[in-house]
Design a protein that fits this description.
Chain A: Belongs to the [NiFe]/[NiFeSe] hydrogenase large subunit family. The complex is a heterodimer. By secondary structure, chain A is an alpha+beta fold. Chain A is built from 15 helices and 13 strands. Chain A has one domain: Cytochrome-c3 Hydrogenase, chain B. In chain A, helix 4 packs antiparallel against helix 14 and helix 6 packs antiparallel against helix 11. Chain B is elongated. In chain B, strand 8 and strand 9 form a beta hairpin. By secondary structure, chain B is of the alpha/beta class. Classes of the chains: A alpha+beta, B alpha/beta. Bound molecules: iron/sulfur cluster (2 copies). One iron/sulfur cluster sits at the interface of chains B and A.
Chain lengths: 431, 298
């Protein structure tokens, strides 16, 4: 039987076409995205610096990642044109801090607005608006805005650094907010200190966690989904360390091996606006799980050895990343040297021609911006978003990452929940 | 004890959007209090009574319809085209809020198909959008995105039954009579024509070289701060003019000049007066404004 399921309460909407057997078990699942906005075309012909204003508008929840990808793309363009751009450690650290804030708020929203809510609904227990989570995400975004001026949609990073010139007062405010966020994660999300959380991962005893994450895992357990959702076991990180991992073999990942495939789109008679992103011709998973595994972070690697890339490991990776990012932001804030310059002016953009690539680890995985400019004007612009990796829609003999994870799940409703473990974003996927 | 007034019933619908207004709205630290006065019949992310599927099946009445994103007639939500869905919801709504610059004027996404994409009442500055006949009940909250406090202000005014004074684009004057330039910490540098020679400093005004559009942009960004703490110009970023129908302009990080005078005058300032004033101001050298504010950061 074929069923079309509209997926809401994601960023935008998606349609899943399920093929099920007599018992309702999922045999095949196709993913369709029906909206398209044409950001790449909007950028073409403009001044290259305008990308710092337009590109964040790809996505309201991860626009800052798009800003950083765009600015790194421009810096690589300068470099390739023979005008290397220097960033002070301060400018670099500020970008890392604000970028991390975006990831943290994203993960908290995903946990409360999407996962706890949808898993509860399936169990017939609809939780109320998670005001405490929204309050804490507004604080995380405030921390970001102390430096970036606003969230969402700031444009405070430019080739050569950042526009802000913070003082100790901002740093102090930021540290206070961070303490509150850390407290929220320990008291509300985990229900224990971060060290105990580590040992729960190691000992595979996460089910006993008292916090809201424990509730989520128990919801999954009651739905018998903890060990569902296995995909290809291929992982990719391009933003920082550039590592690909397939069947536990790690290799240095090369951006040259990335391709986009339009075979499933309307363009070619398909049913979606989303192009697939492939590495070395194959679907790879990106995002927190991929990042934890390629960095060989202890807790998640332990879980992966026992449960593979199933729901429990994938859910936990996003939560573990919140903890890790808070620690990193703290470290960056406390070691900021405010006497360094925020911005070192590069050559005028009008003198620059060539191509560049900027890659960022965004909340959902590796985000790539590529462009070719001539004398400071954008000739071509191409964006590959993280969700294209995870939510790509392959033919039935070669399913994409999320597609594969849904196959074999007992019902459509449960498969839709597994789909959401990937942190679905339709606006990014189709940009 | 006075009985609690009934909660306003609100529908939040999205056209062609990045979801920026949705996430901006979630940043309101007073969201909990706001939710005591409104209830969402539908919202794209928050728990609500009706899914999109329910919404299109039987179009409900509402007190407030919030529309986010640009309008395009054939664009679909839950399989129903906007040309059908938006007017149907709008007719049954007492008030309509166009949330963000896409919904207000077409915004960024209009750039992809300028002929067919517009705001709900205005297409750039022309009042030719699909809801122009009902414009009396529309409040424009332009901005990319709109500030969450701007929305709660409008909702509070509606629930208190107060009249909202609006400008020619139906933007509340209380929010948009200011310019972004008002309250900017760099105003003194503007007055004395001291430009910020480069990005990344606290000193200088971003108007003369870096493209700041604060002097021609209506918005209270430097009064009602972003995320309660900052604004673009406070963090050294030039204002990009995102509340105006002309957004997004081009060459956003440079100021067009004619014989080293900005080619566009600050709003309402005649060119001759500006030139006279600028000449005089420039002839002063004010040491305080030429130095760094905090020395040990040299
Ligand atoms: S007005 Fe700006 S923030 Fe709002 S939907 Fe459009 S692009 Fe996004
Ligand atoms: S930076 Fe912009 S908003 Fe601030 S004073 Fe200068 S022109 Fe006005």
């Amino acid at each position: 039987m074929i069923t079309h399921e509209l997926i809401e309460r994601i960023e935008g909407e998606a349609v899943l076409d399920f093929q099920t057997d007599k018992s309702g078990r999922v045999q095949e699942a196709a993913i369709r995205f029906l909206h398209f906005r044409g950001i790449e075309a909007i950028l073409e012909g403009r001044n290259a610096l305008d990308s710092l204003v337009i590109a964040p508008r790809v996505c309201g929840i991860c626009g800052h990642s798009h800003l950083i990808a765009a600015v790194r793309m421009l810096e690589s363009l300068y470099e390739n044109a023979g005008y290397p751009v220097t960033l002070t450690p301060k400018a670099h650290a500020l970008r890392e801090i604000t970028l991390s804030c975006e990831l943290i708020q994203n993960h908290i929203k995903w946990l409360y607005l999407v996962m706890l809510h949808e898993s509860g609904k399936l169990l017939g227990e609809e939780p109320p608006v998670a005001l405490k989570a929204l309050y804490v995400t507004s604080q995380v975004n405030q921390l970001c805005a102390l430096f970036s001026g606003q969230w969402p949609h700031s444009s405070y990073a430019l080739p050569g650094g950042v526009t802000c010139d913070p003082t100790h007062i901002e740093v102090m405010q930021a540290l206070k907010i961070l303490s509150e966020v850390e407290r929220f994660i320990e008291d509300e999300v985990l229900g224990c200190g971060t060290e105990l959380f580590e040992s729960h991962m190691k000992n595979d005893t996460l089910g006993t966690l008292k916090g809201d994450f424990g509730t989520l895992l128990r919801n999954f357990e009651r739905l018998e989904l903890l060990d569902s959702g296995k995909s290809h076991g291929r992982f990719l990180v391009l933003g920082n360390e550039r590592i690909a991992m397939a069947f536990d073999v790690r290799s240095n990942a090369q951006p040259d091996l990335v391709s986009e495939d339009a075979s499933q789109t309307f363009e070619n008679g398909g049913k979606t606006y989303a192009k697939n992103a492939l590495y070395n011709g194959e679907f790879y998973e990106g995002g927190p799980l991929a990042r934890a595994l390629v960095q060989e972070r202890a807790g998640i690697s332990d879980l992966y050895r026992i449960h593979g890339d199933s729901a429990v490991t994938r859910l936990c990776a996003r939560v573990e990343e919140m903890v890790l990012l808070c620690a990193q932001v703290r470290q960056l804030l406390t070691s900021l040297d405010l006497s360094q310059r925020s911005f070192i002016p590069p050559a005028s953009i009008e003198t620059i021609s060539g191509s560049g690539i900027g890659i960022v680890e965004a909340p959902r995985g590796s985000l790539i911006h590529k462009a070719r400019i001539e004398k400071g004007r954008i000739m071509e612009y191409s964006i590959i978003t993280p969700t294209q990796w995870n939510l790509g829609n392959g033919p039935s003999d070669n399913p994409g990452t999320a597609q594969k994870a849904m196959i074999g799940v007992e019902s459509i409703a449960k498969a839709s929940l597994i789909f959401r473990t990937f942190d679905v974003c339709s606006v990014c996927t189709t940009h | 004890m006075p009985s609690n007034p009934a909660k306003l019933k609100v529908i939040w619908l999205q056209g062609i959007t990045c979801n920026g207004n949705t996430h901006s709205f979630l940043n309101d630290p007073a969201l909990g209090t706001l939710l005591e006065t409104i209830e969402f019949i539908h919202h794209p992310l928050l728990p609500c009574q009706k899914t999109l599927k329910d919404l299109v099946k039987k179009v409900p009445k509402s007190d407030v319809l919030i529309f986010e994103g640009a309008y395009s007639a054939p664009f679909e939500r839950a399989g129903v085209e906007m040309r059908t869905l938006l007017p149907a919801l709008a007719h049954k709504a007492k008030h309509i809020i166009s949330m963000g610059s896409c919904a207000s004027f077409g915004g960024i996404f209009k750039e992809n198909d300028p002929e067919h994409i517009s705001g709900i009442v205005f297409d750039k500055e022309n009042g030719s959008g699909p809801l122009k006949a009902m414009q009396e009940k529309v409040i424009t909250l332009s901005g990319c995105p709109a500030h969450p406090k701007w929305l709660s202000f409008v909702i509070d005014m509606i629930s208190a039954g107060r009249e909202i004074l609006v400008d020619e684009f139906r933007r509340p004057k209380e929010l948009y009579a200011y310019l972004v330039h008002n309250g900017c910490l760099r105003n003194e540098y503007f007055e004395w024509k001291v430009d910020s020679e480069r990005f990344g400093t606290k000193e200088g005004c971003l108007f003369y070289a870096q493209g700041c559009q604060g002097p021609y942009t209506h918005g209270s960004c430097n009064k009602i701060l972003w995320n309660d703490v900052s604004s673009k110009t406070r963090s050294g970023t030039p204002c990009v003019g995102c509340t105006e129908p002309a957004f997004p302009k081009r060459d956003l990080f440079t100021t067009k000049t004619y014989m080293s005078i900005p080619s566009e005058m600050p709003l309402g300032i005649p060119k001759r007066s500006y030139l006279a004033l600028a000449g005089a101001a420039k002839s002063f050298h004010i040491k305080r404004l030429e130095e760094r504010l905090i020395d040990d950061h040299a």
